[in-house]
Write a structure and sequence with these properties.
The protein has a single domain, classed as Cytochrome c oxidase-like, subunit I domain (Cytochrome C Oxidase, Chain A). It is about 75% helix and about 0% strand. α2 packs antiparallel against α14. The longest helix is centred in the middle third of the chain and has 35 residues.
């Protein structure tokens, strides 16, 4: 039976053998394309491009629910195979799920009518949750069901955003987009709590693992979900001083976790310092949100982009670089130039947060170019891994 299953898997084209392959590849390509289009629109270089709802509506949906969701899907569809010991989604079912994601991106880019756009956008996250939930249910693996719940909450946020688009309500769009962004931050926290201690121990050959702190992890997740709910409800769209204790408390929880995982040796290993720096943007974004809540920061967009570029973008690039090596049978040693890609993405986040208040177009242009260059470098050295077989001859 095992031999037959292995032969069947090896008969599938490599690109469709596991979820990380098409979704990581397309997600990285879309990272370059989406930011390039947005920067061009801001500079007035695309006067004829008018996506449904306008370029701002496209941008606020496609970065969290197009780019980030692709990477999340690829990671979870691959990780669930390791969690359950059962084969992950592959072959034609994977082609169909990926095709839905791709058609939704093309529909908005090419100006499809709103009904078709909604029909293509709305089903993806529920279908992803269904695939994950079925695999976990078969082995009764309750520990990972919170991740399915977060995916479903993200689907609700996307529906809220798209409903706002359909009725022309900008407030609903903002509520859905920002709640979805903070939920992605929650996923970074959950997944980071699982992989960062393990990656750090393995990468530095530490004799002892980091002690688990399950209560801290649970409290952090619950507080993160509460914050996302405040944005979804609309209560957090205006500065509220009563939000500051929650936000500062959550920032403190993230700092405690990051400090617990810290080892000075990470600065010798790009695959480690990139993850730790990305996670550090999460409490920084929360501090910015707290300052805005108290009236000390006038431009809350700086906090949102600290989360989106520094934390989410940084964590995604770092995870892409490591997970892609491991799941294609390669040593966990990226090309030296990938360290420069990590650095460029971090510098881009700094430019977006620190330069924009004083030189808006310079900050936006520089951050966009650095983001695009970072993901382009990743594609230059990693793209072929996704459509070729594992180097160790194993399936997957």
């Amino acid at each position: 039976m095992w031999l037959r299953d292995r032969q069947q898997e090896l008969s599938i084209a490599p690109l469709w053998r596991l979820g990380f392959r098409p979704f990581f590849l397309a997600g990285a390509v879309f990272a370059v394309l989406a930011i390039g289009l947005w920067a061009a629109a801001l500079w007035g270089l695309l006067p004829g491009w008018q996506p449904v709802g306008g370029s701002l509506a496209w941008h606020r949906h496609e970065l969290p629910f197009g780019f980030a969701v692709a990477i999340i899907a690829g990671f979870l569809l691959t990780a669930v195979q390791n969690w359950t010991g059962r084969p992950g989604l592959s072959g034609w079912p994977l082609v169909a799920l990926f095709g839905l994601w791709l058609l939704a991106r093309l529909a908005w880019l090419l100006g499809a009518p709103l009904p078709l756009l909604l029909a293509l956008q709305l089903p993806f996250l529920p279908l992803l949750a269904l695939v994950l939930g079925r695999q976990l249910w078969r082995v009764r693996q309750w520990r990972n069901f919170p991740l399915v719940a977060v995916v479903l909450l993200m689907a609700a946020c996307e529906w809220l955003l798209l409903y706002g688009l359909a009725v022309g309500d900008d407030s609903l769009q903002r509520r859905g987009a920002l709640a979805g962004l903070w939920l992605i931050g929650a996923l970074v926290s959950v997944i980071g709590g699982r992989v960062m201690p393990f990656f750090t121990q393995r990468g530095l050959n530490r004799p002892q693992p980091f002690a688990p702190r399950p209560r801290l992890d649970v409290v952090t997740l619950l507080a993160s979900l509460a914050l996302a709910l405040l944005f979804a409800s609309g209560l957090a769209l205006q500065p509220q001083s009563w939000m500051a204790p929650l936000v500062l408390g959550l920032a403190g929880l993230h700092v405690m976790r990051l400090w617990h995982w810290y080892d000075a040796g990470i600065w010798r290993v790009p695959l480690l310092w990139s993850l730790h720096l990305a996670y550090a943007w999460l409490p920084l974004a929360l501090l910015g949100l707290a300052a805005w809540s108290l009236g000390w920061l006038s431009n809350v967009s700086l906090a949102y982009h600290a989360l989106a570029l520094g934390c989410v973008g940084g964590a995604i690039l770092a995870m892409l670089a490591r997970v892609s090596l491991g799941h294609t049978g390669r040593p966990l040693q990226p090309p030296a130039v990938i360290g420069w890609a990590f650095a460029m993405l971090q510098l881009g986040a700094l430019a977006r947060v620190l330069l924009v208040p004083f030189a808006p177009m310079l900050g936006l242009g520089l951050s966009s170019l650095l983001w695009m260059a970072a993901f382009a470098l990743f594609l230059r050295y990693y793209a072929a891994m996704f459509w070729t077989a594992r180097v160790d001859g194993q399936p997957g």
